[in-house]
Amino acid sequence: MNLIKEGSVKDIYHFENDLLFKFSDRYSVFDWGEMPDLIPDKGESLLEFSYNTFKFLENSENWKNWKPKDIAVEGNYYLCKTLKDFRERGVKTHLLDKVLMDGKNYLKVKKVHVPNIEFKDKSWDYREFTKKPRPINTIIPLEVIFRFGVPKGSSLLGRVSDDTYLEELGLSTRPKEGDTFKSPVIEFSTKLEDRDQYIDGARAMDISGLSLVEFEKLKSITLLLSLRLRDYFQDLGIDMWDGKFEFAFADYDEEGKREIQLIDSIGPDELRLIKDGVQLSKEVLRSLYLQTPWHENVMKSKSTAKRENRIDWKEICINELKSTPSKLEREKIETISKMYKGLSLATSKKRELLDQCIPLIKEF
Fold it and tell me: Which family does the entry's similarity section mention (predicted)?
């Protein structure tokens, strides 16, 4: 077992021909990377949450009698075909198993190729994804974001002042905080660059090498996954407002087309979950830093880097603005630890700990 990547939240190991995910107690906000605190039991909670959610989506029994409430499937070829596939075989994911090694739990997943992209001539080089023959068993270099509404703190509000982008999202009027959408709004952002950037559908296809058919299939998968997860969490007494998925090209199917599989992890760091008006996700951690001078300097640094076409925004923040994040209060760390554990237990229908966290988080 060899460590191949130490991320801000999880570590990835190469094991035989597969990968092992080790979820840590670290956390990251605003693309900063590892923050100065650890959240006890967060890693184990994320592992259990992600494992249970993947298994739920993979199980075709959870799709057979389910009908999406907010979108018309009939008449849409891609939605009809994708839903039929899910009802017959469940969702295709990279999850293999949950394994215990040396007293630690890991998620065992299929290995997919993650090309290194270079920043040269003031742009990122995505030729690895667009070359022919088109790559398989390779990550799709996008984060696919879905939104059921505009909760407090949603970044969407900062983008919809652009009429062209508003039309891209299929919205006729500019949403405001608290609005909900009849069907999920889908956005795309870059995945492998130094910082995530929202892009339109044309750019998403261009950098990823997705054909038009594959792009429509990706959107259909995202729509159905988001709707199914929303209903899943509603059964647990939790509202899901938005989230993100990551995908990879798998092998070719019987028709010679590239299959798309769900990868990475699914948990409170990827989803915005709310119960009784309280956010139960990484947004809780973000909110604790929003009013700090450090966050203000992060935004200044990113703005400077974008204006000057630089990729070293973090160095700007540390070295030029002399700004780094502060540690959190012990009581807040303890409450957030309980929140993660409570969410994990909720996926096994045990809701008591999560209910205990609600009034504590309201006091933040």
Answer: Belongs to the SAICAR synthetase family.
Distances (CA, A) of 24 to 7, 21, 69, 233, 273: 9, 9, 37, 24, 21
Could you read off the pLDDT of 287-324 as tens digits, one per residue?
999 989 999 999 999 999 989 988 899 999 999 999 99
CB 5 within 8 A of CB 12: yes
Question: Is the Cβ–Cβ distance between 181 and 148 less than 8 Å?
Answer: yes
Where residue 40 falls among pLDDT bands split at 50, 70, 90?
very high
CB burial of 213-248 (b: ≥16 within 10 Å; e: otherwise) equals: ebbbbbbbbbbbbbbbbbebbeebebbbbbbbbbbb
H or E segment and range at residue 198: strand 198-199
pLDDT in tens, 216-231: 999 999 999 999 999 9
Bridge-based pairing state of the strands 123-124 and 119-120: antiparallel
Token pair recorded at residue 316: 């700007």
Residues ≥6 apart with Cβ < 8 Å to 6 = none
